[in-house]
Specification:
It is built from nine helices and nine strands. With 289 residues, the chain is an alpha/beta fold. The protein binds pantoate.
């Protein structure tokens, strides 16, 4: 695995590889790799000639009160994990390399950001879209891999790739779960033992909602209540949101139809957890709409 710190060197390598018709699989991250990232890398390894992992804690996507400086970093550990997953290039630029001066152009995301987590993080997805625009131009990937746990990020990236005509195949990868269904996250370690036991209810409530949809329920209010009641009665967590939208447009729906996301965020004492399921609602779900 080659570690690259400069944009110029990364682009030179990629241009060389592309001239030999190599496919490039790209996994952009902010480091401190966890099992979710490793799943993306494994998939990229199988589907591409070359795998590029980027690690860059992007200041543009952190709000003034958010944890940019305390965001966990462990390059040595990440490097070992990346080697084990067969990564060819680790792109690890400094902030000065990525943003040598204040940007004269930024990407502004016009849709899909005023709901779910975007609602409480103004400017966050502009920062994500801006850094991804740069990274896509630097790495020029054939395929880019993102976890579905951050379903809103996937929706924003889908908009970016489509609207800006990137010749990139966006590959959303399924959520990796613990045995009891809890979505894997580095933040799960911050759950108290009791909360950890309760946290499996989040996925169970989504599974119950899915069953209800399969049984023919199409009213979003009924489904949201089902989930909220379960979380309120079986956990000490505080519901931040339980929402249902069309996906990836993230528009309100009166009735579940087509591709829909059921997403939730729940605050426990020291950690806020998110989870979601994406459903194709139609004929296969009991025949009714
Ligand atoms: O999901 C992340 O880690 C970041 O938002 C990303 C996509 C690497 C952009 O900084």
């Amino acid at each position: 695995m080659k570690v690259i710190n400069t944009i110029q060197e990364m682009q030179t390598e990629i241009i060389k590889l592309k001239s030999h018709s190599k496919s490039i699989g790209f996994v952009p991250t902010m480091g401190y790799l966890h099992e979710g990232h490793l799943t993306l890398l494994k998939r990229a390894r199988v589907e591409n000639d070359i795998v590029v992992l980027s690690i860059f804690v992007n200041p543009l996507q952190f709000g003034p009160t958010e944890d940019f400086s305390s965001y966990p970093r462990d390059l040595a550990r990440d490097q070992t994990l990346a080697e084990c997953e067969g990564v060819d290039f680790l792109f690890y630029p400094s902030v000065e390399e990525m943003y040598p001066h204040s940007l004269s152009v930024r990407v502004v995301v016009e849709e899909r950001t005023d709901v779910l987590c975007g609602k409480s993080r103004p400017g966050h997805f502009d920062g994500v879209a801006t850094v991804l625009t740069k990274l896509f131009n630097i790495v020029m990937p054939t395929r880019a891999y993102f976890g579905k746990k951050d379903a809103q990020q996937v929706a924003v990236v889908e908009g970016l790739v489509t609207d800006f005509n990137y010749p990139i195949e966006l590959i959303p990868v399924d959520i990796v779960r613990e045995d009891d269904g809890l979505a894997k996250s580095s933040r799960n370690v911050n759950l108290l033992p009791d909360e950890r036991r309760q946290a499996s209810v989040l996925y169970k409530s989504l599974a119950v909602a899915k069953l209800a949809v399969e049984g023919g329920e199409r009213n979003p209010h009924v489904i949201k209540n089902l989930i909220s009641n379960m979380i309120q009665s079986e956990t000490s967590g505080l519901i931040d949101y339980v929402e249902i939208y069309s996906y990836p447009q993230l528009k309100q729906v009166d009735n579940l139809d087509g591709t829909c996301i059921i997403a939730l965020a729940v605050k426990f004492s020291k950690v806020r957890l998110i989870d979601n399921v994406i459903l194709e609602v139609g004929q296969e779900f009991g025949g009714g709409k």
